[in-house]
Amino acid sequence: MRVQHLIHTVGIVLMVFSAALLGATVVAWGYGEGDALPFLVTTLVTAAVGYVAFKLTRLERSLSIREGYAVVSLTWLVVGVVGAIPYLLSGVISDPMAAVFESVSGFTTTGATVFAEIESLPKGVLFWRSLTQWLGGMGIILLGIAILPFLGVGGMHLFRAEVPGPTPERLTPRIAQTAKRLWYVYGSLTAALILLLLAGGMGWFDAINHAFTTMPTGGFSPKNDSIAAFDSAFIQYTLILFMYLAGVNFVLHFRAMTGEFKGYGDSAEWRFFTGILAVATVVVSLSIWSWGGYVGNSAERVFRDALFQVVSLATTTGYATANYNLWPLGAQLILVGLMFMGGMAGSTGGGIKAMRIYIIFRQGLSELKRSIHPRAVVVTRLGRKPLHEPVLLNILGFVLLFFAIFAGGVLMLAFLGHDLETAIGASVATIANIGPGIGQVGAVDNYGWMDPWSHTLLILLMIVGRLEIFTVLLLLHPGLWRR
User: Fold this and answer.
1) Mean local confidence (pLDDT), 240-267
2) Which residues make beta-bridge pairs with 386?
């Protein structure tokens, strides 16, 4: 492990990151609400530190696999801390750990917030919260690969560590070109959503902010009541569509943009993911309709609220149009299950990923067949592709680690004095990068009341979940640091 390589690469990312801070500075200056100077100071300091780190070190050759994983983890920690500085300098957050929590929640697209009163925040701060999620959605490292091809072949190791999902898929032989195309899809969908929200009656500021937090499945909103503040069927159905698109593998979107629409139907994971959402929506709709809490509302409103929450939580966006903590227990359990699943591999969603759930289900069926026909050769397939044992073991290991870390988070939160429902809700909401959970961190609640130790634990869970567990846990392995 060559430490200077880590410092050099993180320096490059910090210089790119300072450009994002400059954008927030311009917005803050334009609205003139007193938060422009904190952003300007953070921009200059970040650019200076990044430049010094870049100039004082050099990349002798491309990054190794071990260095790629270390760089990704280190970068997310660094930008999480740097992103917290504007919150502290502007005075909107006084506790440093709470500021880091808000920043990491943004970059990991978790959407958990410490703010109880959001609409009173300066516009620059609100824009910064949204921008952190938009950058984190496709990945800060992936952005660096797209615009800094001189990282060389080592960029593939960053790509493998950064892109969520069991098997990152290239669109082109060159990884930099793949990153650029994914960013093209991401940017195009964001622009389309902004235009549709404007057509639905949103103002420019709200439209841009909600588009910046929908496509990364982040869920930060400049409104206290989230999407419930917009009592518009058009806006809510539009967001449902784009949350769904954000939860689908972006490779399929790119191929659709080139005219290859059959890629959706040919994907076993897409059929599984879409089918789960459809069934869950029907069951939740029937559950809350029979519950009686929607007296006086139309069947369409019941269906819309059910569909919105199902898609929002399954894609780990975390927007809300209703307080699902008040819904029947059966409906809540379905929503919690969807939190664990998350979106498709290659999407901006968090969670275990639909592909892993599907493969585990298929492997279970294969084991049943083997029990019935012991001599038969039974092969587990993803669509038409056979899955080899190393892939199956990787997926099994990931799922076991995911639930082990989740359970550990619940246990530690309980030791810190939180009730069981809140501990479960906060643990799954952070490791799956959802934001709102259940209990005292439900759809209409926040994390601002928690103590610094709880914030620290949840920060770690957010980063571990965003980087798909293995990337972070590898840092604890002694072999990663040996020369």
Assistant:
1) 89
2) 381
- Cβ atoms of 416 and 453 within 8 Å: the answer is yes
For 397, residues 6+ apart whose C-beta sits below 8 A from its C-beta are none
Where on the phi/psi map is residue 95: left (φ > 0), alpha (ψ -120 to 50), or beta?
beta
CA angle 119, 442, 326 (to 5 degrees): 110
Q: For residue 70, give the amino acid letter.
A: A
Read off the pLDDT of each residue in 34-44 and give the average, rounded to a whole number. 96
Greatest mean pLDDT among 265-274, 313-322, 372-381, 408-417 lies in 408-417
- Note the pLDDT tens digit of each residue in 195-223: 999 999 999 999 999 999 999 999 999 99
SS3 386: strand
- Give residue 158's identity as a one-letter amino acid code: L
- pLDDT in the model for residue 154: 42
Averaged pLDDT, 117-131: 95
Give the separation between CA 212 and CA 480, rounded to whole angstroms. 35
Phi-psi sector, 319: left (phi>0), alpha (psi -120 to 50), beta: beta
pLDDT for 404-440, tens place per residue?
A: 999 999 999 999 999 999 999 999 999 999 998 888 9
Burial class (CB in 10 A: 0-12, 13-18, 19+), 482: exposed
Q: Where are the alpha helices (DSSP H) in 121-260?
A: 123-138, 140-147, 155-162, 175-199, 204-214, 233-246, 250-257
Is the CB of residue 212 less than 8 Å from the CB of residue 133? Answer: yes
- Choice between 144 and 354, residue whose per-residue pLDDT is larger: 354
Of 447, 483, 476, 481, nearest to 101 (Cα)? Answer: 447
Q: Calculate the alpha carbon distances from 311 to 243, 245, 308 in Å.
A: 7, 10, 5
Residue 88 · residue 96 · CB < 8 Å: yes
Q: How long a stretch of residues is the chain?
A: 483
d(CA 125, CA 92): 9
Beta bridge pairs of residue 170? none
| pTM of the entire predicted model | 0.90
Residue for token digits 């801070």? 21
User: Of 1, 139, 152, whose CA–CA distance to 70 is shortest?
Assistant: 1
Whether 463 contacts 108, CB under 8 Å: yes
Residue whose tokens read 């246990």? 411
